[in-house]
Design a protein that fits this description.
10 strands, globular, 2-enoyl-CoA Hydratase, Chain A, domain 1, six-stranded mixed sheet, alpha/beta, about 260 residues, four-stranded mixed sheet, 2 domains
């Protein structure tokens, strides 16, 4: 079955790899629990400044493992949830980027939609085909997809179950960039390392919470004000301005969890 492999580099970027290339990285119930554990580790580890999610081999993830060895998807059991990764990527207080290096089908795509940013291989196949299998999209995709691209594109994907290429997905805003497959992970790592070096961890965490919150304009104003009051006058606010003036990398003191509860 697919394993979940976590490696943290010297820049503070954690790469989470869905490691089951011979099965196109399909995910069993155990793998989904392990992915949640990997997210919790990244959230709590102050050395981790950004997270990249990718797949081994030629696929990102071809969905749930429906083999005879992975019976947890056959019938619902007590405590069943259609969002099986806890916490989801959007609850991690770091930037989480999906490096969609190949096909992302069903759960593979819906988990990628829980990430903050997505880069995709141009010729990868992307689909949420569950309506063609007698089911519906999972992993909160009726929120994440609509939140990312609007009702029209979300309906096109979720209600038809049709397949897009990575290039088409980027054209519709489902992914930020479409790239040759060999360039997806290096480009993602480049952005993750830039954020890990340049961006204040507390600022990223506070901004991410607001981006994923379903708040009205007045509530956003209140939350932005609360964040500004927490950050203004801190050593990091002074350091950020000084680093910009002196054209050097900032030296941050803050941690992602300074103003937020853990995932």
């Amino acid at each position: 079955m697919t394993d979940i492999r976590v490696e943290v580099d010297s820049a503070g970027v954690a790469v989470i790899t869905l490691d089951g290339a011979e099965r196109l990285n399909t995910l069993s119930g155990t793998a989904l629990r392990d992915l949640g554990a990997a997210y919790r580790r990244c959230d709590s580890d102050d050395e981790v400044r950004a997270v990249v999610l990718t797949g081994a081999g030629r696929a990102f993830c071809a969905g749930a493992d429906l083999s005879a060895r992975a019976r947890s998807f056959d019938t619902p059991v007590d405590g069943f949830t259609a969002s099986p990764v806890r916490p989801p990527a959007w609850r991690v207080r770091k930037l989480v980027i999906a490096a969609i290096n190949g096909h992302a089908i069903g759960l593979g795509l819906t988990l990628a939609l829980q990430c903050d940013v997505r880069f995709v291989a141009e010729e990868a196949k992307l689909a949420i085909p569950q309506v063609r299998r007698g089911m519906i999209g999972d992993a909160q995709s009726h929120f994440t997809l609509r939140h990312a691209v609007g009702l029209a594109v979300a309906a096109d994907m979720l209600l038809t179950g049709r397949t897009l290429t990575g290039r088409e997905a980027a054209d519709r805003g489902i992914a930020g960039r479409a790239l040759p497959a060999a360039d997806v992970l290096p480009t993602t790592l480049e952005l993750a390392r830039e954020v890990a070096t340049e961006a204040n961890p507390a600022s990223v965490a506070l901004s991410k919470r607001l981006l994923w919150a379903d708040l009205d304009l007045d509530a956003v104003e209140r939350e932005e004000t609360r964040a500004h009051l927490a950050l203004l006058g801190t050593d990091d606010a002074l350091e950020g301005a000084a680093a910009w003036r002196e054209r050097r990398p900032p030296k941050w003191a803050a941690k992602a969890g300074d103003h937020l509860d853990p995932a």
